[in-house]
Amino acid sequence: MSNPLLSVRDLHTTFDTDDGTVRAVDGVSFDVDAGETVCLVGESGSGKTVACESITKLIPTPPGEIAAGEVRFDGEDLTSLPDKQLTEYRGGRIGHVFQNPQGALDPVYTVGDQLVEAIRLHRDVPKSAARERAHSLLDRVGIGDVEDRIDDYPHQFSGGMKQRVVVAMALACDPDLLIADEPTTALDVTIQAQVLRLLDELQDERGMAMLFVTHDLGVVAEIADRVVVMYAGKVMETGDVYQVFENPSHPYTKALLECLPGRGRALETIGGTLPDPTDPPDGCRFHPRCPHAVPACEDGDQPAFEDVGGSHQASCVLYGADYDEPELAEANDD
């Protein structure tokens, strides 16, 4: 089996604050293979965005710090690279689409100028060639009347059009991996569907991998090959999208899916709140909110991952050797 395009191992990202050290990402591991879509899911505050920003060291330093772990992209450990060398990857081989397109675009430059700058940062081409490429990218992402609109400013575009411009910028240098951080959150459902369809088409055309951050499980079901479920800086469950949706194994994943409409049952909510990131509980991070928690959930570190079928794994003591099948079945059926 070939090595993954992206391999994140035991990643720890912290932030020093007046209230203490926030352990935003606390020992996270996952892989993204070439050409596949992996979705990071979980409630707001689970550490999804920080995990993605840590890949190319976009976190503000200080107060942020990658305290430990390894991020290998095509065999290269990005955490050990100085910023000058990292530029080859950041915006070059790894593109980012952020959830707030207005914040990702400079209001005092035209979208064409910003695209040209992004292209020339990574490619040694004359300005005329870069502008031609910018024109082609805007046309491909569905910006109409490109000849006129290429010289417009961000405020002259709607929210959906601004997001298409941001997608064009992320694709400017034909990245091998696109990191999309909740790119449709601020858009209405019609525009959201258009942007998702665009990303799917572009991924097929270019054969690129995609790491997609969302809390919307409906989006996950539509686009994901594999799913990584995060909670309070930890990974709770990981597996093929069909495995996770058909057989959610961690109580947190089950709770998330019960909040999803259209499953033939009344909508549920998850009781309680995320733990204090400066003082997280011992044991499983989810145990204070978990209806199936047992004393073993409250001690030590996050439970080890247990195989629950194929490549499907869950970080839950109920799958350990100390718990028999009847107990597990009863917990999963509740």
Automatic annotation (TrEMBL):
Subunit text: The complex is composed of two ATP-binding proteins (NikD and NikE), two transmembrane proteins (NikB and NikC) and a solute-binding protein (NikA).
- Name recorded for this polypeptide: Nickel import system ATP-binding protein NikD
Where found? Cell membrane
Q: Which GO terms describe its cellular component?
A: plasma membrane
Q: Which organism is it from?
A: Halobacterium bonnevillei
Annotated keywords: ATP-binding, Cell membrane, Ion transport, Membrane, Nucleotide-binding, Translocase, Transport
Database matches in InterPro entries: AAA+_ATPase, ABC_Ni/Peptide_Import, ABC_transporter-like_ATP-bd, ABC_transporter-like_CS, Oligopep_ABC_C, P-loop_NTPase
Q: Which SUPFAM superfamilies match?
A: P-loop containing nucleoside triphosphate hydrolases
Q: Provide the E.C. number(s) assigned to this enzyme.
A: 7.2.2.11
Looking up SMART domains in the UniProt record yields: AAA
Catalysed reaction(s)?
Answer: Ni(2+)(out) + ATP + H2O = Ni(2+)(in) + ADP + phosphate + H(+)
